[in-house]
Amino acid sequence: MKPAIVSRLPDVGTTIFTVMTQKAEQYGALNLAQGFPDFPLPQGLAEALARHVEAGHNQYAPMAGLPRLRECVAVDLERHFGCRVDPLTEVTVVPGATEAIFCAIMASVGPGDEVILFDPSYDSYEPSVRLAGARAVRIALSQPDFTIDWQRVQEAIGPRTRLVVINSPHNPSGSVLSRADLDRLGELAERHGFLVLSDEVYAHLVYDGTRHHSVLAHPVLAPRSFAVFSFGKTYHATGWKTGYCVAPPELSTELRRVHQFVTFTGVTPIQHALADFMQSDPAHVDALGAFYQARRDLFCAALAGSRWRLRPSAGTYFQLLDYAEISDADDIAMAEELVSRHGIAAIPVSVFHETPPARGLLRFCFAKQEHTLLRAAEVLCAI
Ligand code: PMP
Ligand code: GLN
């Protein structure tokens, strides 16, 4: 008799990022769907990796990450966001923010617990909540600016609310939470006693003078939050799958209890290379906002006069486009047509929602070389 597999996630298909990248390859399309840069690593980072592989740094790193990299992280957090953290007890290096999100959720919720998510929300959150045995309570962000309606949050909080997941700068909309938003969340967290998971992977990608507010710099939120970051976004190295989670010692201890049995540790020479680069080239991060803002502006300016309507993007490397003047198709059909007929891959935003929104939107990644963006805009303008 064959053993039966009872799926833990029977309704979950392949992630949209894989689906759209496969379609981009199938149709030979420009891939503005999955979020990754099409330009090289910053100068010096690849050599640093080669150097450490060559030097024999190829065995297990400590479970919580290389101490020297965790120190660099602490310096970066203080310098850019005014957060003071202890690298030893509060910083854990992980193989990608996705792993940290999973571990933080597994470490903090269980059967019967409720976790508040905001729609559209990154696609790994809800499956992680369900694998932990908890239930996701999804609240739609207010349109058209993708802001949080705190009255609705207050109404959704119940006795089983254990965790609230926020994401700023926000994927896919590019909206950014204000200090006042964090204050409201802090008031609710204090009153109702829940934890916070703050996905800040795009922390360094903010534009037009917008500031990123980290929960780690907030006096009420810092003691009750996991904050998750990704080196992949900051160092143009999504394929290196390396990030970190910062949380107070009690929460970091719980996170590490899970992390040590999910992956144990991250890739050693990558951690060395990142530490070298962070020490030798701190200016890379300082220039990142202007670097990506120029790409966003190039893409948006090239769409002027087209039938695509731009939504504001204050952070991340994503731009939402509204195609209501072009078609009344749903966004999945629109994305399919765009990739198969016009050779541009984009992400349909409805996949990040529990209930698809009334208005179809497509997400375009502008972490691309100028000629890629200009070529994509030329095609989009002709539609
Ligand atoms: N959270 C958000 C909001 C993201 O966009 C991503 C992007 N990839 C991740 C988490 C995961 O990051 P990583 O590739 O480091 O796992
Ligand atoms: N975070 C990236 C995006 O939003 C993709 C990550 C992935 O492919 N898993 O496009």
In N-to-C order, the SSE pattern is: HEHHHEHEHEHEHEEHEHHHHEEHEEEH
The strands making up the biggest β-sheet line up spatially as 2-8-7-6-5-3-4
Cα-atom radius of gyration: 21 Å
How many H/I helices? 15
Q: Which CATH-level-2 architecture of the largest domain?
A: 3-Layer(aba) Sandwich
Biggest sheet features: 7 strands, mixed
List low-pLDDT spans: none
Mean pLDDT: 97
Count up the domains.
2
**How does the helix and strand content classify structurally?**
alpha/beta
Morphology call: globular
CATH superfamily of the largest domain: Type I PLP-dependent aspartate aminotransferase-like (Major domain)
CATH class descriptor of the largest domain:
Alpha Beta
Residues in helices, as a percent range: 40-55%
What does this structure look like?
This protein is α/β, with parallel strands linked by helices. It has two domains: 16-41 and 286-381, Alpha-Beta Complex (Aspartate Aminotransferase, domain 1), CATH 3.90.1150.10; 56-281, Type I PLP-dependent aspartate aminotransferase-like (Major domain) (Aspartate Aminotransferase, domain 2). The chain contains 15 helices and 13 strands. Strands 2-8-7-6-5-3-4 form a seven-stranded mixed beta sheet, with helices on both faces. A four-stranded antiparallel beta sheet has the order 9-10-13-12. It has a two-stranded parallel sheet with strand order 1-11. Helix 6 links the parallel strand 3 and strand 4 (135-140). Helix 3 crosses helix 11 (268-280) and helix 13 (288-302) runs parallel beside helix 15. The protein is globular, with a radius of gyration of 21 Å. The mean pLDDT is 97. 4'-deoxy-4'-aminopyridoxal-5'-phosphate is lined by residues 35, 96-98, 122, 167, 171, 199, 201, 230, 232, 238, 241, 243.
